[in-house]
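Dear colleague,

Following up on Tuesday's group meeting, I ran the structure prediction for the two-component complex that the binding team flagged. I've pasted the input sequences exactly as they went in, so you can double-check that nothing got truncated or mislabelled along the way. The structure tokens for the whole assembly follow below. Feel free to forward this to whoever is handling the docking comparison.

Inputs:
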Amino acid sequence: MLTRRIIPCLDVRDGRVVKGVRFAGLRDAGDPVARATAYAEQGADELVILDVSATAEDRDACARTVSLVRKAIAVPITVGGGVRTIEHALRLLEAGADKVALNTAAVERPDLLRELADLVGTQCVVLALDAARQGGAFWEVVTRSGRSRTGLDALEWAAQAQTLGTGEILLTSWDRDGTREGYDLPLLRAMSARVGIPIIASGGADSPAHMIEALESGADAVLAASIFHDNDTTVADVKRELAAAGLEIRP
Amino acid sequence: MRASIVRTGVANTASVRAAFERFGVTTNVTTDPGAVRDAELAVLPGVGSFGAGMRSLRESGMDAAITDRVRSGLPTLAICLGLQLLARESDESPGVRGLGVIDAAVTRFPDGVRTPQFGWNRVQPSAPGPVDTGHAYFANSYRMTTAPSGWDAAITDHGGPFVSAMWHGRVLACQFHPELSGQWGQRILERWALAEEVSSC
């Protein structure tokens, strides 16, 4: 039986881990290799590295960070943030990413997902989808770190992405990101009813209880940043609580 | 000691290389069948489809080099699609002949289980060997359901039992990614590369 995955996320800028609230107000949260190594030792099942840098020079720095983290840890690494071309995706895979997450560029040109999947396989292609709740059962896809509203229905976009060759969906609630108010559970329920590929829940975790709720609402994996970076809890502690709640985990 | 990693298409080899280099085995990535034939350790990774993988091996002449190594029992490690390429055929690419060094067919996971299988699943060996009981990282839609005769195997359940690893002498084939399976996977690579005796205690 597949276990539920706990995935710490490193937002990286200029070779440092940073963290913000609703994608803004970034503060320093340490060295990426040290963080990644600690999380892997605690039992992290995967790691996500999101490049939140603003310039082309920083993007090269991110590939270097990926390469350093790759050498240090032996669990899968997904890298995303600002990936706009196949060439850029391949450069990240070359640097040591196992999967690449596409966001804004895929919304603007959905065939990018298919082209990447044809080249490297669906297991390497992750759709990073940022969804903003618009009332009722409608979530709108937002891009450019939340600055652009697209009018797209998040559920429809995810279903289309699945057809194009996406292997997994990294589903971030824009409303909850960094707020520690818990994951958007209705979004997770609606999404897991709509697509058959694994869903990584992101945005809003403050406690193992939030993670259990998300996993019981259709998420296959849960992603968190703040609670691990602030040393409020460890991956090992979270896994103990998940196991106690009867969820299958990798010990 | 050096491991030669077969380049198949645009497969990402950074994770495999990093895993070997962590315990002092150097690596090179090659498309030269002669180099693979003579390599101390050879690794057949593989991401992508069965059909594309076979095409790449045939075009480079690598198919014969791998087949010879496996038949002669030379230290050879096949990972994920690499394992499947050893078989006769696969549901993924009907009509494409595999290396056929193992008399088995590769089939798709049944309907009703998450496909692809993405994530960590439990591995249970049915004989002592390089693979212990533990959790491994998988990313696959196809698998082999019975081990070929003469091979020992480890079994995992995903919509029914399937072969998650099999070994015969110094040839080891893993459906999971040992290089992404944490400390547990790292130990498998070390045992295979360094030919450690299996402890009987």
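The two ends of chain A are 13 Å apart (CA to CA).

Cheers,
M.
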